[in-house]
């Protein structure tokens, strides 16, 4: 019989792609058929995504997809579009870096009670969680809205005409009950919305629907259905971690560094809340116990400030590799770095405030960014292990950052634990294999990960030297207030 193929639509905050996967004799061959840029668009009322433009790129990609069994869609979390009663999109979705939640998020938490909120939804405090975005929204769009669709579900709606909310991404909204895995009407009301705005939940593996006739015509696809995957990109990235033993931690590095552990159950303790950990849902009942670290956004925005592009990255990384180690580090979880803007200036401020030298060259600043990320990876992994009572003997670093050899090596050095880097396209890989599993070609997560480990070239980094200099650098970071 012919080997089945699947198509993954993976929308990252900095780029989107359509990737095909063919499963033959226990190996997955992948081919990227379309890639396109993505990013915030400043409009008079704030920062948005160009959702319609992204959908157009999805259609262009699917036109190159051949005859896949199914299509799965994933994207970044928390953001949403609103539809009116006739199914029209009510304005371009806001970007999670928009500042409208600044004044609202903390006061919402204060009035609800931080421990009460964490006990209910199990989420890390991030000012852009959907619950805070909704609390900050006023106006006509929300009043006219009949249904709220998270970004991958919006793309799924445009492909099939079916509405729903996929569970892994719903778990990032702050509106899902961490114990029952159902929408919480109480949290919806607290956010100021009618709970009926939230569509029925669907799970990875569920059929979303068949392609609408204009979509089938535009893409040339017939007989292809859309299947729900871990539609939160980080859920698919964790599926795409080629772990061979249970004692692994992961760092999903792209725009963000999502760093933590895969667990069978949430950790809802007061210590976990104070350490600002999140319990997001993975596939097959797993929990992603992790922290959001600012990630390569720090580097992307530095390049943008300098008028450089990703083509300049190899040269800059070579300079960073030659720069003096650990002269200055910043807290890569500080929300001061969240908004778009002059990143080198903000990093310099953070160095001054902690009495450290300001990096004088671009190479030194890039080194400061990568060392700060490595230190943040170390802190999150150590704390996740302590809070969950797990041992960690290997760290899997997946996503675009797996191409960054210096970042991989520094992460191994800081932790004193080996790092296995790759796949770069872990998210698309996890998306594809979740579809293959839904179609009955893969038994479970263990087999799925074995397929990834045998299909991809992985790079191994062994820790160099002692972790002493990292212990010393960690002391220079300001202590974080706990609410
Ligand atoms: P996202 O899904 O959040 O958009 P990706 O997983 O695509 O992010 O990762 C993008 C990041 O990958 C970039 O910000 C960049 O730092 C890194 N990257 C891409 N290409 C290279 C390269 N050739 N060398 C080092 N890093 C790279
Ligand atoms: C990574 C990601 C992350 C979220 C952020 C908004 O792309 O989905 O897991 O917290 O975007």
TrEMBL record:
Residues covered by region (Disordered): 460-483
CDD domains, alphabetized: ASKHA_NBD_FGGY_RhaB-like
InterPro entries: ATPase_NBD, FGGY_C, FGGY_Carb_Kinase, FGGY_N, Rhamnulokinase
Coiled coil: none
Stored Pfam families: FGGY_C (PF02782), FGGY_N (PF00370)
UniProt keyword Transferase present: yes
SUPFAM superfamilies given in the database record: Actin-like ATPase domain (SSF53067)
Domain Carbohydrate kinase FGGY C-terminal: start-end pairs: 249-439
Domain Carbohydrate kinase FGGY N-terminal: 68-240
Keyword Metal-binding belongs to the record: no
Origin: domain of life: Bacteria
Keywords, comma-separated and alphabetical: ATP-binding, Carbohydrate metabolism, Kinase, Nucleotide-binding, Rhamnose metabolism, Transferase, Xylose metabolism
Signal peptide: none
Family matches, as PANTHER family: SUGAR KINASE, XYLULOSE KINASE
Protein family membership: Belongs to the FGGY kinase family.
Descriptive protein name: Rhamnulokinase
